[in-house]
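Bench notes, afternoon.
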Amino acid sequence: MAAIEIPRDLDAVLDAAWQAAKEAPGYLVEDEARFLGIVVACAPAASGAIVEIGSYKGKSTVMMAKVAKHYGRGPIIAIDPHNFNSPELQEQRSETNSSSFDEYMSNIRNAGVADLIETHRAYSSDVALTWNRPIRFLWIDGDHTYQGAKGDFDGFSRHVVPEGVVAFHDALHEFSGPIRVFVEDVLRSDQFGAAGFVRSIAWSQFRPHDGASFQKQRASLEISAKRLIPYVANDEELHGMKKVLYKLNRSRVPRVGMRAQEWALLLERP
């Protein structure tokens, strides 16, 4: 793989994108948002769309779109039914029949990126049935159950181009899907190369031709990551000693934020 080119103005672009994105409600923290921006700007895959599964009110959508617009790396395909059955909306909605869609649309318009975003107000499982476009970055932040995360991964990952990136949100929170799919389908597969965590984001690069050379790195990460799976298997809120043990095991997973240069080195060195 050729050396990754990091734009000289990347830090300033990430700063500006975060200033726009942070105004939208959501659970994405700054380190995670900046990482998404790094992937959008620097992922070496030459072509393909950026696909977001789970947009909510547009926080990550805006972050990625601002960076993509600056560097000409779009489009952003944002897939979310925006219905009031979503767990996030159940927690934050103010009215019984409220939806995240109107606020999502307002946020992407106010950020000046609506023209770069192709919005699908639909379930990802339905969109996957007819999807046939290449993907350079697959960002999975939808249904966090195992069935939901597995369905999103299976439905879209086969379209990820070599050297593209797959990432899951909330892999280090109390959900069964993202962490289990990441361990079982990514870390244990020689189709993938470098992998890691940034806060609660689990990510890996699709390397079907030389993924086996990263096996040792992925196996090392699996040792700590797989310990979390039994604690979240039932998607139930953790309490007492079970929660203490989950947090203890989670603390052993390396998950700090990183700069673009650090990420680039991980992709280049098995």
